[in-house]
Every structure is written in structure tokens, then in C-alpha cells.
């Protein structure tokens, strides 16, 4: 255990404290003004209790996220080097930005102090949005979904934060409560008719809770909570691994009519439709993936075999990289 680092990180830095205060106050105000659907009457209503919930979750969420990263930093032999590894596991976009910053100077976002600040702010902001929209079911899975989002699920949650920022002014957040996830009825998407999910945030999803597509997207929400950074890194790694082979396969494959499948569709089918996380989601949805074209879309058995090698390799690499820091 790195005792010196334990002493240094025992308190909250000033910037993190200010962030908690600002987000807590914002949550208290906005949460009291936002209208959500009453689960009993079905009517939209607003209540000061929403603001109180947001305020409490900001404090709890910020401390949970910070403590989680702090605990991962404690056993590291070289805290500065280990912080870089952890940064790429849990905060990939800020970490990549910091890689460029480090070219001309010291690391900022993936320093130990930077990681603790990121965890505090991302946890607090996510918790604020959770409280404002009352997403967690405190009579059921909310006691599991909230702490998972603030700890093991941080890798996907920081992408969910970006979705909130992109969507908040125009994407029409749904008003249903206590379903353990956010749903924007429009918003950011990669294809017009496809939903897009990161962390606990589902974007461009007009389907209500209980529908097939909603179950698909909620599967991704829980995949992130269960598998944490391994879900995010394996998803990205799968797409990178199969991108060029998919382009080649699409360019050289023919449809039943003799037309070329096309490089773009080949890459889409191997990188997306054959991705094990998506195969799982489509299975829950009850949707046949081959509805988008039978060429180059594998059945479940080849997907599982490929996942063993690709996911196994990426996961093993992550474990080794962290283990080398101990």
C-alpha cells in the first residue's frame, strides 16, 4: 500500500469540492423544476423532493467514484505510471487527450490527482442527472445500479455524460421514472433509425419501457454495469480488430443477386452486427440480425468462438497491464 499517497489523497482538493457544491446546488434547483411522470397517476408533475434526491446523490456519487479510483491507486507500486493505465481503463477519452498533453509537458488528467478529480466530477454530474430525472428504483435494483454506475461502470458512464451534454437541450428526455436508466427520445445516434447507448444513457430511443428495442438498449446499460471497463474496451477492441477484415470481406463478397455487398456494409456487419455484445442485445430483443442482410452476419457459435480469442486477448492484456503496476 502506498502510504504516502494515502496521506496525500485523504482529503478532497479544492476544485473537486467546488464542483460538488456547484453540481449539488444545480441538482437541487433543476430537480425541483423538472417534471416527471407520476407512476401512479400517469400525470407529469414536479416536486422539491427531486431536487433533494439530486443533491444527496451528487454528494454520495462524487465520493463513491473518487473512493473507488483511490482504492485502485493505493496498491500500485508506481502510482504515477499506474494512474496512466487506470486512466485508459476508466476514462479513455480524457486519457487520450492527456496523451497529447503529455507530449509537451507533464500529465494532467491521468496524474493521480487528475484521476481523482475526474472521478469526483464525473460521478457527481452523473449522480445529479440521475436524481433530477429520478431514474433509480430505490425499491428494487436502484441499490445495485447506482453504486455500480459510480464505481465499476465508470468507463461507460463518462461516455454517458457526453451524451447528456450533447442531448440536454434538444433530445427530449423521457419523463418515466425508476427504470434505472435514462432515455432520450431523440438525440445523438450513429444511424437515424438506431438507438445509441453509453453507460446508463440511451439516446435516440422513442420506444417506451417494456418494448423489444428498449430491452435491447437496457441490456447494454447492464452490460456496462456488470463488465465495467472490459465491456467498453472489448467493444472498441472488437471494432478495431475486425474493421479492415470487414472492409475486405464486404468488397469481395456478393449478395444473392450478384451485387457487391460493399466495404461499408462488410465493416458494419463484422464490427457491429457480429459483435458479441450486440448479439446478446439482439437476442434479448428477439430480433434476427440477418434482417439487415444475411451476407457476412455470423450465427451465434462463430461469434462465441471469435469472442473467446479477441475478448480473451484484450481482457488478458488489461489484467497484465494493471498487474505489472502492483
Structure report:
The protein is mainly α. Among the domains are: 3-134, no CATH class; 230-323, no CATH class. 63% of the residues lie in helices and 4% in strands. It has 13 helices and 5 strands. The strands form 2 sheets. A 3-stranded mixed beta sheet has the order 3-5-4. Strands 1-2 form a two-stranded antiparallel ribbon. Helix 2 (14-33) packs antiparallel against helix 3 (48-73), helix 2 runs parallel beside helix 6 (112-133) and helix 3 runs antiparallel to helix 6 (112-133).
Helix content: 55-70%
The largest sheet has its strands arranged as 3-5-4
Q: How many angstroms separate the termini?
A: 9 Å
Low-confidence stretches: none
Number of helices: 13
List the defining traits of the structure above.
326 residues, 3-stranded mixed β-sheet, two-stranded antiparallel sheet
Question: What is the gist of this entry?
Answer:
This protein has helices spanning 3-8, 14-33, 48-73, 79-90, 92-104, 112-133, 142-150, 154-167, 212-227, 229-252, 263-273, 276-285, 300-323, and strands at residues 36-37, 44-45, 182-183, 196-198, 201-203. It is mostly helical and 326 residues long.
